[in-house]
Automatic annotation (TrEMBL):
Residues 218-231 have a biased composition (Basic and acidic residues). Residues 57-127 form a coiled coil. It comes from the Bacteria. This is ATPase. Residues 191-200, 232-255 have a biased composition (Acidic residues). Residues 182-255 are annotated as: Disordered. Keywords: Coiled coil. It comes from Coprococcus catus GD/7.
Amino acid sequence: MSRIEQLIDEIEEYVEGCKPAPFSQSKIIVQKEQLYELLTELRLKTPDEIKRYQKIIAQKDKIISDAQAQAEQMIEETTNYANALVEEHEIMLKAYEKAEQTINAANAQAEEIVAAANQNAEEMRMSALSYTQSLIVNIQDVVQRSLDIAKTNSEGLINGLSENLNILVSNNEALVSQLNDKQPAAAEELPAIDDEEDTVADMTGHDEAAEEEDDKTEDQKQPVPEETKEEVIEEEDEEEIDDDEYDDDDYDDID
């Protein structure tokens, strides 16, 4: 794997690892400096052939100019040679013929050089464009996949929060309904009890609660005989024993 492919993989991993932007399903948060570092390294690792092609394209005018200068030099030399033999007709004819051939050859050679230079420059340009386009497609793929992943994750989070919110709202409505059902019932029972006590007090002409309080006060004032105290203590002991037996029976049933 070349270093360029490794850099593309690193850019893909970096973009996939970026967090989605808040309140957006189509944007991510990118560290600008880190992304620029990866792109700078990718630019530095561009194959030497592309740089050489760019250099040739930049020097295209110089190549054509050199070819034309060479052709002009050959024409000038031929012309000078023909002028030296101008006195003799036959020599002049041969000189002109030679000069014409040289000129035609020079023009043909110059045209070939220019055509070859143009063809090479076009091939290099197309190669550079094709390579750049493939890089753009790869980066576009990486960004599209990262965007799809971020969008899927955001939709899943929103759906989960919506479900939780619906559950909470449903539970709250159920509790409010239960509270509303119980509060009116309790409010209706309290006035009924007060009305009954008032009615009984009015019918008897005195408060039974007050009489019970007076009876308790009188009982407390009277001395309790010793025999009665012993009977009360025995009854309390028997009740405690019965409670203990009852508790043991309960434990047996539980086991």
